[in-house]
Amino acid sequence: MPGPVAGPVSVEWRGAFTNDEVDALHAEAFAHDPTGEDWHGRLTRLSLGWVLARDDEGLVGFVNVAWDGGAHAFVLDTAVAVRARGGGLGARLVAAAREHAAAAGCAWLHVDFEDALRGFYLDACGFTPTAAGLVRLR
Q: How far apart are CA 94 and CA 51, in angstroms?
């Protein structure tokens, strides 16, 4: 069972981060080894923005908000540290993504997810189910 976060959690749009801290959080959340990804380069080049959550010990949450440059934004890589799960932080991150995508003029916020996350995205975050398609490229 996750432990409590260390102190209050702040949520910030387009906040400063290091590649290592996002890489470590992503690896923990998605159960893989750190990749050495250039998160800063990728996000500043391709994303509308990102949402960070921090407590007294560091980064505990992250959401990438990609977009098409117009009406459509996309929630990607929602990640919450194990120690911060179960308290609604993921929903706070997605709510901030939604707010900032709307403020940027987007009309739609999309998300794809595995069945295990259906309750989170549909119930906790307010998404509506839609028909969609997916092709695996590699």
A: 8
Per the listing, tokens 């470590």 go with: 24
- pLDDT (tens digit, 0 to 9) for every residue of the chain, 138 residues total? 455 556 699 999 999 999 999 999 999 999 999 999 999 999 999 999 999 999 999 999 999 999 999 999 999 999 999 999 999 999 999 999 999 999 999 999 999 999 999 999 999 999 999 998 889 889
- How buried is 81 (Cβ within 10 angstroms: 0-12 exposed, 13-18 middle, 19+ buried)? buried
In this prediction the pTM is 0.91
Q: Of 87, 97, 14, nearest to 55 (Cα)?
A: 87
Q: How many C-alpha atoms does 115 have within 13 Å on its Cβ side?
A: 0
How far does CA 7 lie from the centroid of its chain? 21
Domains detected in the chain: 10-124 (3.40.630.30)
* Residue 101 · residue 94 · CB < 8 Å: no
Beta strands per DSSP E along 15-93:
47-55, 58-67, 72-80
